[in-house]
Structure formats: C-alpha cells, structure tokens
C-alpha cells in the first residue's frame, strides 16, 4: 500500500474498515452474532487499530498482513469492554445509539461480549508471523488484565472518599492508556520488531494515553460545550473524582477544600450553580495549569520514547502528529 505520510492514516483506516466489515457474520444464532456486528459498526475514532497498523508499517509491514490481525484484535477487544462497561454503568447510549443491552437485553450483552473476547484472541492467532505469536499473546494478556484492573479500580473509587492522585493516575493508566500502548507494541512485534523497540512504542502509547485522558478530563470541565458537543461539567454533575477534583482538593485552603467536598457529596436538581462554584474553586486551586503541566510532561516523555525507537522515520512523524492532534483537540 503506497501513501504519503499525510494520507497514510486515512489509507490505513480504509483498509482496516474493509477487513473489519468482512468479519461480520451471518452465523446462527443471530441473537448472538448480530449484536457484535452492531457495536463494531457504530464507528468511533478507531485509534487503537490505527496505532497497530502504523507500528507495523514502521517495521516494514507494507501490505499490512502481519499487523492487520492485531488491529482487528485490539478493536474487537476494545468494543467488548464497551459492551460490558455499558451494562455495568447501565448506560442507554453509545456513540449516539442504543447500547447493546438496551437494544437487546443484558443477557445478550454479556454473552455477545464474551464471544467478542474469544474473537479477539482468534484474530490475534491469525498473525502470519508465527515466531511473534508467543510475545503477542503475552502482551495481549498483560494489557487485557490491566484494562480489567482499571475498570475495577474505577468502580471502587465511586464509593471511596480517600482516593489519591497517584491512585487515580494508576487507574486511568490501566483502564485507558495500556491498550493504546499495547496496540503499538503488538503491531511492532507482529512486523518483527525487536523487544526494545516494541517496549519504546508501548511506553509512547501508554504515556500518550495518560496525557489524552488528562486532556479529556480538562475539556469536560473547562471545554466549550458548543465545540465538544457535550454538556460542560458532566464529571462535576456526576461527582466523579477525576484528577481535577483531587488536585483542587489538595491545593485549596481547608475551608474551600471542605466546601468542594460538600459540593461533590450533593446532587441538586439544578446542577448549574454547583458546576459554576466547583469551576471557580478549581480555578482558585490552579487546577487547569496543573493538569496542563502534567499532560505536557507525560507527552514529552512519550516523545522521548518514540525518538529512541527504530523504524521508518516517516511513520514516526505520522505517529507524533497523531499524538499532537489528540492532545491539541478542543472536542
């Protein structure tokens, strides 16, 4: 596949979507397979499979034969976690459409999700590079375990009032960042990259994922709803103890910190005044600056790992630009 660096992401995503839709199944029972096709067809940014394919291209996988099974595996696994997360959160919508358990039922969501996890392993095992398979499976198991651990920590934090900044960062690292890193690591391994380069790419993805989540938290509270398309202050309304809340709680004087805690223990019918006051307290605590500084520190460390990795310099530039786009977004 020939493409200029600027057009490479679109070309790779086009090839990926063709392969993904070829996996859609008319197998019976339809009540098991149709929900899988449904969630996979809902869209999304497809960042994880794109990272896997870019990593493969960095190490010479021009026709995508080696990295495509990895891309399919990480996308199916990611969507499996979304199906089960939506059940746990009782979420009615995913990407603007009914969630699987709402469109069908909870039992279907559980069982179809289980099959998606099995399918993810099946995709991974189709990698033509047989020598890479043990490393791929070990990396996938490590990443999948981390995602589950992160989800459990997120659930635990909902009922805890003593969550620390370090614990929160560990949670988002496992829940969000490790799969981004794993997609890059496994794409590189599938294409024959050495373990040192694969670990540099894993670190690049993991650190970029941490920076991405911090930016996401920042936009939730301080973003423009007309740009983000989301209600500003949703995390505040839900009393979600993100890095913003934890940093502000630690940085504010005792009286204001106690006020912040009281606000996060309330759920008023009209959340507007609560969101406004919490935002004021966060500004007083220097929270936007603190989030931006930590985000930028993570990204600087990520870039250092990407620089240290071998591989095609042109593809590395594409990865760098992709990371910058994720962090400079306003939506």
From TrEMBL:
Q: Which InterPro entries match?
A: Isoprenoid_synthase_dom_sf (IPR008949), Polyprenyl_synt (IPR000092), Polyprenyl_synt_CS (IPR033749)
Q: Which cofactor does it need?
A: Mg(2+)
- What are the entry keywords? Magnesium, Metal-binding, Transferase
Q: What sections of the sequence does the record tag as coiled-coil?
A: none
One GO biological process from the UniProt record? isoprenoid biosynthetic process
One GO molecular-function entry: metal ion binding
PANTHER family xref list = GERANYLGERANYL PYROPHOSPHATE SYNTHASE, SHORT CHAIN ISOPRENYL DIPHOSPHATE SYNTHASE
Q: Name the protein family.
A: Belongs to the FPP/GGPP synthase family.
Protein name per its UniProtKB record: Polyprenyl synthetase family protein
Q: What phylogenetic lineage does the species belong to?
A: Bacteria, Pseudomonadati, Bacteroidota, Saprospiria, Saprospirales
């Amino acid at each position: 596949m020939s493409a200029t660096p600027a057009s490479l992401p679109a070309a790779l995503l086009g090839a990926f979507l063709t392969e993904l839709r070829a996996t859609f199944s008319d197998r019976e029972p339809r009540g098991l397979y149709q929900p899988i096709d449904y969630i996979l067809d809902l869209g999304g940014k497809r960042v994880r499979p794109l990272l896997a394919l870019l990593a493969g291209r960095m190490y010479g996988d021009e026709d995508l034969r080696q990295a495509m099974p990895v891309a399919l595996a990480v996308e199916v696994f990611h969507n499996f976690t979304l199906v089960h997360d939506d059940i746990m959160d009782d979420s009615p919508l995913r990407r603007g459409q009914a969630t699987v358990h709402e469109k069908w039922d909870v039992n279907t969501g559980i069982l179809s999700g289980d099959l998606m996890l099995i399918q993810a392993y099946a995709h991974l095992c189709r990698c033509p590079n047989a020598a890479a398979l043990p490393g791929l499976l070990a990396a996938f198991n490590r990443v999948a375990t981390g995602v589950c651990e992160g989800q459990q920590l997120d659930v635990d934090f909902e009922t805890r009032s003593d969550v620390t900044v370090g614990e929160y960062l560990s949670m988002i690292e496992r829940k969000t960042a490790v799969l981004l890193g794993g997609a890059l690591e496994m794409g590189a391994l599938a294409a024959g990259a050495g373990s040192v380069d694969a670990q540099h790419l894993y670190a690049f993805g993991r650190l970029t994922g941490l920076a991405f989540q911090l930016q996401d938290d920042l936009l939730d509270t301080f973003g423009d709803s007309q740009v983000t398309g989301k209600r500003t202050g949703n995390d505040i309304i839900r009393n979600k103890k993100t890095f913003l809340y934890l940093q502000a709680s630690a940085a504010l004087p005792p009286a204001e910190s106690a006020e912040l805690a009281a606000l996060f223990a309330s759920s008023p019918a009209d959340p507007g005044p609560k969101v406004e006051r919490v935002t004021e307290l966060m500004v007083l605590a220097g929270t936007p600056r603190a989030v931006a500084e930590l985000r930028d520190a993570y990204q600087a460390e990520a870039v250092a790992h990407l620089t240290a990795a071998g591989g095609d310099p042109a593809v590395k530039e594409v990865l760098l630009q992709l990371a910058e786009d994720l962090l400079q977004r306003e939506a």
